Amino acid sequence: MSARRTMEFLDGNKVNYVTFPHTAANSAQEVAASTHVPGRHMAKTVVVRLGDKLALAVVPANRMVDLARLRQVSGAGDVRLAEEAEFIDRFEGCQVGAMPPFGNLFGVETYVDRALSRDDCIVFNAGTHTEAIGMTFTDYRRLARPTVARIATSVCRLGAVHALQV
Q1: Domains detected in the chain
Q2: Which own/partner pairs from 142-146 qualify as long-range (CB within 8 Å, at least 24 positions apart)?
Q3: pLDDT digits 0-9 by tens, 41-98
Q4: Is 70 exceeded by the pLDDT of residue 1?
């Protein structure tokens, strides 16, 4: 799903959106900074394994996926970050790490952190490391049909949890 195909999908569904061409960026936080979009509006798409299947976990760029919460929400017994080798061929036309948050286009479930639903807009990678798309969360939710739940945690909280486990 190249940026062009993502835009064709949105156009075909009569969605208003804005494109944000930007310098090459490898993280959602870098994209947010490059496009002058607050990190809380920039969606980071993370590929996860829920048992034996792949899924997308979408969280604000300034947060991380909380695997324990995702396990609870999904009901999967085993939840972990997917390794690149497990999905490299699954997201056709997308650069690795730049997948748009539309799991339904790739035959996988999508889970979105509820913090992203609190704002009017969402910005995400369009399938490349040089272009992002912004649209209303309402339109995104209608097209992606994600499960919206609390699945993100702050980096500080993860650090505190790690410190307690040591």
Answers
A1: 3-165 (3.90.960.10)
A2: 143/9, 143/10, 143/13, 143/15, 143/102, 143/104, 144/101, 144/102, 144/103, 144/104, 144/110, 144/112, 145/104, 145/110, 146/58, 146/101, 146/103, 146/109, 146/110, 146/111, 146/112
A3: 789 999 999 999 999 999 998 899 999 999 999 999 999 999 999 998 888 888 888 8
A4: no
d(CA 23, CA 66): 29
Count of CA atoms in the C-beta half-sphere (13 A) of 116: 38
How far is the C-alpha of 152 from the C-alpha of 157, rounded, in Å? 10
Express each pLDDT in 116-160 by its tens digit.
Answer: 999 889 999 888 888 889 999 999 999 999 999 999 998 655 444
Q: H-type helices in the chain, by residue range?
A: 3-12, 28-35, 67-74, 84-87, 114-117, 137-144, 155-165
SS3 category, 100: coil
